[in-house]
Amino acid sequence: MTSPAPLAEPTDSSQPRRRGRRIAWWIVGSLGALIVAGVVGILVWSQVGVMPAEAGPLDDVRANPAIEISDTGGAIVLSPADDGADVGLVYVPGAKVEPLAYADKLAGLVADAGLTVVITKPWLNLAFFDLRPLDAFTGLAPEIDTWVVGGHSLGGVRACQLATDADGLALFASYCATDLSESGIPVLSISGSEDGLTTAGKIADARPLLPADAVLHEIPGAAHSSFGDYGPQAGDGTPTISDDDMREQLTELVGAFALKAAGAS
Fold this sequence. Notes:
There is one protein chain. This protein has 7 helices and 8 strands, in the order ααβββαβαβαββαβα. The protein has 2 domains: 16-48; 55-264, Rossmann fold. It has helices at 14-47, 55-63, 103-111, 135-138, 154-162, 200-206, 243-264; strands at residues 67-71, 75-80, 87-92, 116-120, 146-152, 168-172, 187-192, 215-219. Helix 3 packs across helix 7.
């Protein structure tokens, strides 16, 4: 008599499911660790190598009785001591440059041209991380009716993104990555002949993104770092223009542009 075949042992169908869940959690954990490491890396990188404001030019601004300086925490406001300003400039610093490094080069706009200048403090020292709208800065001087937005280098790229909410756009050794060609907004683009970073070629390549009537002006002898006071910058050219001359030219160019924007607004 044939013995009955032994019964097969029941299989545990939950084992593959448990194994799949472990693999899924491992993948999620690994991705989470990579994201955290990336965020930490960006935070560390953004704080390393920040170019500080040079003490001498900044001391000159602080000693100027025609200029009042206030730090709001999110921005630095330079205003005429006589409270007569009705035109303002929101200025976005370049990547990893201390905002106060631009105070002296913009001082003439305040003391001589009568503008209020708001220098933003970009999040993580990088303009493209700063998602605050333009009114976060114009609201610091509510008495101003006409606002020009501008910025240096990467700060200018961010200024282009804010330009449609302003009465004018001023680029300082910078160019747009945003198409403003049909915006109708007045644009002034100032560059330097010795700039090794924002070169004439890069500005020309991005020119189609600006309105047809945008004004482009190159300052002879100016390098990338000539637009602020933070020392030499890797990859830049050697400036041959003096700080006083650079300040005077910026005051004349931007002051006239801002007053024209005020007349058109």
